[in-house]
Amino acid sequence: MPEAPLSKGLPLLGNMLDLMFNPLQGLLELCRNNGPIFRFRALTEEFVVMAGTDVNRFLSEEGKDCVYSGEFWKDLVAYWHNPNALIALDGQPHIDERRQWKHYVSREVAHNEQQGLIKAIEDYTHTLANDQPISARRFSRTLVTRELSFLFTGKVIKLSPKLGDAIIDYQRVLFNTLLARKYPRFILHLPWFRNNEKQVNAFARQLIEQTRNNKTESDTFYHWALRRVTEDKERNEAELIATFLTPFIAGLDTVANTLLFLIREITENPALYQRLQKEIDDEFRHNDGLISSPDTLRKVPALFGIIQETLRRYPVAFANMRHARCDFEYKGCTVKKGSQILFFTAQPHFDERYFSQPERFDIDRFLPPRSEQKTRYAFSPYGRGPHICLGAAMAESLLLTSVAYLLHHFHFNAVEPGKKFKYLFDPSLSLPDSFKIRLKPRRTGQCS
Ligand code: HEM
Known about the structure:
Blueprint: H1 16-20, H2 23-34, E1 37-42, E2 45-51, H3 53-60, E3 67-68, H4 70-79, H5 91-102, H6 107-112, H7 114-125, E4 134-135, H8 136-153, H9 161-179, H10 191-213, H11 221-231, H12 239-268, H13 270-286, H14 294-297, H15 301-313, E5 320-324, E6 328-330, E7 333-335, E8 340-344, H16 392-409, E9 410-414, E10 424-425, E11 429-430, E12 436-441
Parallel strand pairs: 2-8
Antiparallel strand pairs: 1-2, 3-5, 4-12, 5-8, 6-7, 9-12, 10-11
Helix pairs in contact: 4-9, 7-8, 7-16, 8-12, 9-10, 10-12, 11-12, 12-13, 12-15, 12-16, 13-15
The structure holds protoporphyrin IX containing FE.
């Protein structure tokens, strides 16, 4: 069986330039030219790309044991002194570990804590000056940092925007250096990275200390993580830093960027905005002016539609990396043991066969009668396979509550409507700080 075809590229550089500035667009183009499985080169590295609904199925079924995650994450795991990082485990140890995490990173946690989440949103939005321009990215990052801190500690920690930025910058540099290997390693020794690292580690230590001192609190993820390190001699204190940062590393950039693109869409599309706001206001009215539970909010068509469509059109984590555990075959091609494989899980989001006019932002595609997400494995914003996002239900719950609350209580405007912004990939898909918005309270004296 031959190896997958090699994509045409430049001498030496291979397809590096195609992927450098807009990897999402570049990958889509390469898939269009090369089909569901191919190889490409970028300088000295070679990658196999696999994409399509059948690939997403393969990754979840017979292919799940052909590939593994540990190799891709190993430098980061070493940096964090955390051999037990969930994302880097494979096989039975991963299944066992994930089962335990599931109890704490769940829909129920976000559902049960909805009132606290609202308090976190209120506390933050009340600090914002009325109608003053603010970077939409900074707004969504600060909001989501506070929401996550509440969900995982039981208290709204008023993280400064500076710390929110430091966490994201720290993640960006670590991922681009130790995972994507786009940055040289010496970057990790530069004073500005060291400074971010210091702030982030101090934040993690503060979380650990708070949990240690808070013995009366219910059984949270953090209490469980702390208990395990104390009771299990195989585990070390150092791994706690990475474990305590996990919600922020996995959940902050992803949820905040999804919210960011959603805000961008409503501020650019007044008809969509009005429809969404009206449906949200009606839901508040039906519930005596109070916010409904996430399960009920999910049934508000425009709210459900816009969240799903944002995840489809702007898949912030559109691909994931694995290595081949053994030689295996897919669609008549051999993938050799040890190959680096890029699973482009969000590729079907842009395939006309599943999503009509895929470039269009169209929330009705997720609603009956169209329900375009019905093709199995076509809609995969949370990845596929054994490592499929553990926080997906929590993320959805956060987005439902945040968008409903924000749109009911505030009016959003873009400072420069119609202005085009370059996409950022650092590492999640994002928009630059130059996309600014203004927030104005819609009415006063209302409770949530
Ligand atoms: C819109 C929001 C989110 C998106 C798009 C997203 C996307 C993803 C993707 C694509 C993966 C798979 C990575 C891989 O296979 O290599 C993943 C894994 C993961 N996510 Fe999310 N995520 C989101 C929110 C969250 C939140 C809020 C949390 C928790 C606070 C979270 C926790 C995790 C964890 C723990 C994993 C690793 C699971 C495992 O290794 O078994 N995510 N996420």
